[in-house]
Amino acid sequence: MRTVGVEEELLVVDPSGVPVPLGPEALEVASRRGEGETPAEHDRAEPGQDGRDGSPGRLVPELKQQQVELGTRVCTDLAEVTGELRYWRGRADAAAQAVGARVAALASSPVAVDPVTTPGERYEQMAETFGLTALEQLTCGCHVHVSVADDEEGVAVLDRIRVWLPVLTALTVNSPFWLGRDSGYASFRSQSWNHWPSSGPAELFGDAATYHRVVADLVATRTIVDAGMVYFDARLSQTWPTVEVRTADVCLRVEDAVTHTGLVRGLVETAAREWRAGVAAPPVRSELLRVAAWRAGRSGTTGELVHPLTGHPAPAADVAAALVEHVAPALEETGDAARVAGGVAEILARGTGADLQRRVHRDIGDLAAVVRAAVRLSTGEQSGG
Predict the structure, then answer these.
(1) 69: phi > 0 → left, psi -120 to 50 → alpha, else beta; which?
(2) Mean pLDDT of 97-119
């Protein structure tokens, strides 16, 4: 069974619902408790070694002081993932409460805020190099790592899952508001993130040598700070034998993050089987994938998506069903089929995080109330909504 690890970025907010630059202080608390790294400790790590995909669970800094990131331990089943996410969200919230704040699993800030860059050489270099793209970048994603045998299998997986990644975006949308206004998107994080020059869908690689040559060529341009800034929608880990899928907004509910994790592991296993069976990767150009990703971020599960098997628009529910069917044999083998299919059905029935945010705003008319509701759902204080 392939192992999985999950990283989630969380907003740090004050009791009123406004993001506050108390992430470093919360991490100081976590560090004293043996649960996290301070910004200074994190900055001394190897360049680009941001992930926690192969190490014990931990809380670490992110680009902005209004954020913290959690990383789970390596897990073998979805029940473990559930427990890990609940535990580390709880530890992040406890550390934030110690400095007068809370955490919220929101992929963007509904309320207006001035993002503050976390101290450290790497983050400061990014801010200087990329201007407003870095200075305004206050977004929170969910990154899922799945084990692979080696880089050859990993690249074969990357080539075969790329057409399905926009569907994952659609099922996890959780950023309809952007710094005080409705963005018109279900996931504006996905739009903002693509301002980075090295982000988005990649072309087919074919083999590990080509993948590593492309990464080296990107670094050689001296445009990005280091290889850790190769922000492909899915990439190989620099440190551990995993494929990292990076397209999702951080999910408001732990249950949805677990569903997403199950889908990602199912996609990786399905792709590896196809590769071993000699099934060619779908020859879809990245221009078409970028359009598919845009549509997914625009409407989430409420409109039509580009169907990965036809290239034509289809209802989101039909496209989600096609994804579940595509990975069903792999999910059956791990015992995840009922859990993941049920999780997808629940998302389609009750809505995504973006749907809930808009519902709270429509009912109350206060964006800060959206954040407060998100705190309750993120930390398990409330299960409905």
Answers:
(1) beta
(2) 97
